[in-house]
């Protein structure tokens, strides 16, 4: 579909607040976050929840500029794999976090049950209904990303932030003393 993709592997990512923000894996994650227009968050479901590694990645995303997040306005697709029966716990948790990060989280999602049966020896996903769903999710992510391209500033503009910025400007130039 013409999208340029990058994959971030969390191997070596320290726990949040357990290393400086200039740690190479943290810097790599933050650079990828700023580079992207759309993202795919994928986590195994462990003990009925998203993995701690996935949550650690999200926790390393900075919140500069007060309420302005580097993720806001970007599109987001969610997927999970499970070792057992199909569940949606991890994608539901990631959906909440994506919404909180002010991302445009697409309606479609994927949950691959008994994932150990769904991949071949080279790690490639076998043809199946699960595979088809993953492709559906990726197509929808690309479509939503194209539909919202160039509109992020408009879609994430909020009255409360404009009001706060105006108050800060007024204080800086002394209008609040008039």
Descriptive notes:
The mean pLDDT is 89. A hairpin with a 2-residue loop joins strand 1 and strand 2. Strands 2-1-3-4 form a four-stranded mixed β-sheet, sandwiched between helices. With 178 residues, the protein is an alpha/beta fold. It is built from six helices and four strands. It has a single domain (24-177), classed as Flavodoxin domain (Rossmann fold), CATH 3.40.50.
CATH topology value: Rossmann fold
**Number of H/I helices:** 6
CATH class: Alpha Beta
Query: What overall geometry do the principal axes of the alpha carbons give?
Result: globular
Main sheet, how many strands, which sense, barrel? 4 strands, mixed
Poorly predicted sequence stretches spanning 5 or more consecutive residues: none
- What gap, in angstroms, lies between the N and C termini? 57 Å
Would you report the number of β strands?
A: 4
Summed over residues and divided by their number, the pLDDT gives a mean of 89
Rounded to an integer in angstroms, the radius of gyration calculated over CA atoms is: 19 Å
Instruction: Spell out the helices and strands N to C.
Output: HEEHEHEHHH
CATH architecture tag: 3-Layer(aba) Sandwich
Strand percent estimate? 15-25%
The secondary-structure class comes to alpha/beta
Main β-sheet, spatial strand arrangement: 2-1-3-4
Structural domains: how many: 1
How helix-rich are the residues, as a percent range? 40-55%
Look at the structure and name the CATH superfamily: Flavodoxin domain
């Amino acid at each position: 579909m013409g999208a340029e993709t990058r994959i971030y592997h969390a191997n070596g990512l320290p726990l949040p607040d357990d290393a400086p923000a200039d740690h190479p894996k943290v810097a790599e994650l933050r650079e990828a976050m700023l580079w992207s227009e759309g993202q795919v968050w994928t986590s195994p479901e462990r003990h009925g929840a998203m993995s701690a590694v996935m949550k650690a990645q999200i926790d390393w995303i900075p919140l500069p500029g007060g309420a302005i997040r580097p993720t806001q306005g970007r599109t987001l697709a969610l997927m999970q794999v499970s070792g057992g029966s199909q569940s949606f716990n991890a994608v539901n948790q990631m959906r909440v976090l994506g919404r909180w990060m002010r991302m445009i989280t697409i309606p479609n999602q994927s949950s691959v049950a008994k994932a150990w049966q769904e991949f071949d020896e080279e790690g490639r996903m076998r043809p199946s209904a699960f595979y088809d769903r993953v492709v559906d999710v990726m197509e929808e992510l690309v479509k939503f990303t194209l539909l919202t391209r160039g509109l992020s500033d408009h879609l994430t503009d909020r009255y409360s932030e404009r009001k706060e910025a105006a108050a800060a400007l007024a204080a800086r130039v002394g209008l609040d003393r008039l």
